[in-house]
Amino acid sequence: MAGLSLSGLASGFDWKSLVEQLMQVEQVRVTRLEQEQATNTQQVNALSALGTRIDSLSAAAAALKDVSVFSGRDVTSSTSGSTWTLSASAGSATGSHTIAVSKLATAARLNGTSDIAGGLNATDDVSGLTLANLRTGAAPTAGTFTINGQKITVATTDSLASVFTAISDATGGDVTATYDHTTDKITLTSATDSTITLGAANDTSNLLRVLKLTNNGSGTVTSSGALGALKTTGAISSAGLRAAITAVDGTGAGSFSINGVSISYNVNTDSLSTVLKRINASTAGVTASYDSALDRVVLSNNTNGDLGISVSETAGGLLGALGLTSGSLARGQNAEFTVDGGPTLTSTGNTLDESVTGLTGLSVKVDSETTQTITVAADTATMRTKIKSFLDAFNAVQSYVDDKTKITSANGKVTTSVLSANREVQGWADQLRSTAFAAVSGVSGTIQRLEHLGIDFDGTTGQLEIGDDDKLTAALRDKPADVEAFFQTSTTGFVAKLTTLLDRMGKSNDDQQERLNKTNTNLDRQIEDVQRQLDAEKERLTASFVAMESAQAKIQQQGTALTNAFGSSSSSSK
Question: What is the pLDDT of residue 569?
Answer without folding.
Answer: 55
